[in-house]
């Protein structure tokens, strides 16, 4: 520990000298603070502005600052082109209140700016071509004099996530204005002069926009489907707009996951429960400063709210008590309607229920699960419905308690999922897909049972081999005995041929016939042995087994047998007189 302290004490002066050398080159109109990183503030008067650093930096020594704030009540409307020479990154860059009439073209030397504040200026056109390469995530052009929006204004800053164009004089938003900024999650258009919200005004933000602020405009016409496709929208602020008879609030289709809804001071006189009955995530609704008629719908709306609240800049710590005007033209709280509405039944909201239609489609959902090479592949049919909040996948093993994998939540735009695991066993797995309409409610669940196909195939191959072994043995025996029978049949046919040729000589005596039968018997036995054992016998083998008989080598041809018989007959006739 002591050594570390000594090292810090030794390096601290060197660090301070090096850092002060960098800051020493800062323009005289600027000051810096190193408490939480390099934070620079420049206050310009009515004079020419010079670049921030007097001396250029090598590439490896380029500055990276926490923030730069340019302030002052000056008449300066432009900056030198080399203003940022020597600086690489600035986390937050502010030109707040410098009377700029457009976004200056001075950022060619900068590489990264996360937040750019151009508020309280005199900018009339939101042209972002000069800041296209900075990767800006938060752009603030509020409190300017912007009247018109051009379709290509935002095409250069596709990285922006928070866009503030509030407190301007915008009257209309062109169709597909946000088509190039598909990452915007927070859009602030409050305090403008918007009158109409068209159906496709927010095209391009369907899967990103989470907070939409339209407060304090002059909106008197909203297309029923203007917000319906904003699948991720959780906060919608319409407060301060003079809704009139032209707007039927109940006809506006809100996306299912809206949690914070602000209708404060919108001249509402009634609010049907059907307007919010499908909003399962609704946590806060502001109905203050409206002359609402007391009805059971209002009571049911308030009961529909959840007990926890979506965190937002305008959300109140708790739901305020909503008040309404009763039949006697007196003001009372909505909760006082409880005795009157206790036994009343909620009306059917629509003859066509989108939720029931989706549920019907889910019954025919194509769902497939398979295991290949240590991976579980899960596929399901694509469901193009704004009612789906997300999918949830869980895997259980039948023989074990708890989850084998998951549960894991998947985005509603997905239609497949892959699980890689080295613990897959040759047991049956239950893979379930849950279709969710909000964070806590599962509309439909579909499950499938699968096994590891790789292990099953190995077992199948081994079983097939074991089954084939008896078959091969049986086939071998059949071939063996068939061949043996065939050889015996051939020998029998040959012997019959020999017997028929011998029987033709009827003049032979009985003794000759007996000798002939004896020799044929001996030859036949040895012939069988030769064919059966595959061993060729010569004449010496026969002479030893048949005494006093001279036998030659027997071939398969009948003339040999006739020759042997003649020899034997001659020997017998010579020996007859001696006997």
Would you give an account of this structure?
This protein starts with a helix and ends with a helix. Among the domains are: 356-451, Immunoglobulin-like (Sandwich), CATH 2.60.40; 456-575, no CATH class. The protein contains eight helices and 23 strands. 25% of the residues lie in helices and 20% in strands. The longest helix has 50 residues, at 453-502. It has 579 residues and is an alpha/beta fold. The model is unreliable at 5-21, 506-511 and 529-565 (pLDDT under 50). The radius of gyration is 50 Å and the shape is flat. The strands form five sheets. It has a twelve-stranded mixed beta sheet with strand order 1-2-3-4-5-6-7-8-10-12-13-14, with no helix packed on it.
Lay out the secondary structure.
Blueprint lengths: L1 H22 L6 E4 L5 E5 L19 E9 L15 E8 L17 E6 L20 E3 L21 E3 L21 E3 L7 E2 L13 E3 L7 E2 L12 E3 L22 E3 L21 E3 L9 H9 L18 E3 L5 E3 L4 H4 L12 H9 L4 E6 L2 E6 L9 E8 L5 E9 L4 E5 L8 E8 L5 E9 L2 H50 L7 H24 L5 H7 L12 H18 L4
Parallel strand pairs: 2-3, 3-4, 4-5, 5-6, 6-7, 7-8, 8-10, 9-11, 10-12, 12-13, 13-14
Antiparallel strand pairs: 1-2, 15-16, 17-18, 18-21, 19-20, 19-22, 22-23
Put the structure in a nutshell:
The protein is α/β, with parallel strands linked by helices and 579 residues long.
**For the terminal residues, how far apart are their CA atoms?**
134 Å
Uncertain stretches: 5-21, 506-511, 529-565
Given helix and strand content, the structural type is: alpha/beta
The best one-word shape is flat
Rounded to an integer in angstroms, the radius of gyration calculated over CA atoms is: 50 Å
Major β-sheet strand ordering: 1-2-3-4-5-6-7-8-10-12-13-14
Separate helix tally: 8
Number of DSSP E strands:
23
């Amino acid at each position: 520990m002591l050594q570390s302290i000594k090292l810090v004490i030794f390096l601290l002066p060197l660090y301070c000298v090096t850092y002060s050398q960098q800051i020493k080159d800062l323009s005289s109109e600027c000051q810096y603070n190193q408490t939480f990183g390099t934070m620079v503030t420049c206050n310009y008067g009515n004079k020419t502005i010079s670049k921030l650093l007097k001396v250029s930096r090598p590439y490896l020594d380029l500055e990276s600052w926490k923030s730069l704030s340019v302030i002052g009540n000056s008449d300066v409307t432009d900056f030198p082109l080399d203003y940022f020479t020597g600086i690489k990154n600035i986390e937050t860059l502010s030109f707040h209140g410098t009377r700029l009439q457009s976004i200056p073209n001075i950022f060619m030397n900068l590489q990264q700016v996360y937040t750019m504040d151009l508020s309280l200026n005199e900018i009339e056109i939101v042209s972002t071509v000069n800041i296209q390469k900075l990767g800006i995530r938060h752009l603030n052009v509020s409190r300017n004099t912007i009247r018109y929006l051009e379709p290509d204004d935002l095409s250069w800053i596709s990285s922006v996530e928070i866009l503030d164009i509030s407190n301007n004089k915008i009257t209309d938003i062109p169709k597909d204005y946000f088509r190039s900024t598909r990452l915007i999650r927070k859009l602030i258009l409050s305090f403008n002069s918007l009158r109409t919200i068209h159906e496709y005004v927010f095209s391009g933000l369907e899967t990103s926009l989470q907070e939409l602020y339209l407060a304090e405009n002059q909106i008197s016409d909203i297309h029923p489907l203007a917000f319906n496709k904003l699948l991720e929208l959780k906060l919608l602020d319409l407060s301060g707009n003079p809704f009139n008879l032209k707007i039927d609030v109940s006809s506006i289709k809100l996306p299912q996951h809206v949690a914070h809804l602000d209708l404060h001071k919108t001249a509402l006189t009634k609010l049907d429960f059907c307007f919010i009955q499908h909003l399962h995530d609704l946590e806060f609704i502001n109905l203050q400063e409206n002359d609402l008629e007391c009805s059971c719908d209002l009571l049911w709306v308030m009961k529909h709210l959840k007990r926890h609240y979506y965190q937002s800049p305008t959300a109140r710590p708790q739901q305020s008590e909503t008040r309404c005007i009763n039949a006697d033209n007196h003001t009372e709280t909505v909760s006082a309607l409880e005795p009157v509405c206790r036994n009343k039944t909620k009306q059917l909201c629509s003859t066509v229920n989108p939720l029931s239609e989706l549920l019907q489609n889910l019954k025919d959902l194509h769902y497939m699960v398979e295991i290949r090479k240590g991976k579980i592949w899960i596929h399901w049919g694509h469901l193009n419905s704004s009612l789906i909040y997300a999918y949830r996948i869980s895997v259980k093993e039948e023989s074990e308690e708890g989850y084998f994998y998951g549960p894991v939540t998947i985005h509603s735009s997905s239609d497949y999922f892959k699980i890689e695991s080295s613990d897959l066993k040759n047991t049956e797995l239950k893979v379930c897909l849950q279709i969710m309409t909000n964070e806590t409610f599962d509309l439909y669940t579909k499950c499938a049972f699968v096994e590891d196909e790789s292990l099953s195939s190995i077992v199948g191959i081994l079983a097939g081999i074991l089954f084939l072994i008896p078959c091969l043995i049986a086939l071998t025996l059949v071939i063996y005995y068939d061949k043996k029978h065939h050889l015996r049949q051939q020998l029998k046919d040959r012997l019959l041929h020999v017997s028929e040729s011998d029987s033709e000589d009827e003049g032979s005596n009985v003794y000759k016939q007996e000798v002939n039968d004896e020799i044929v018997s001996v030859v036949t036995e040895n012939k069988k042995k030769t064919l059966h054992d595959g061993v060729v016998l010569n004449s010496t083998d026969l002479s030893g087994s048949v005494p006093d008989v001279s036998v030659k080598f027997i071939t398969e041809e009948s003339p040999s047998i006739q020759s042997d018989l003649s020899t034997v007959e001659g020997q017998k006739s010579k020996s007859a007189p001696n006997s």
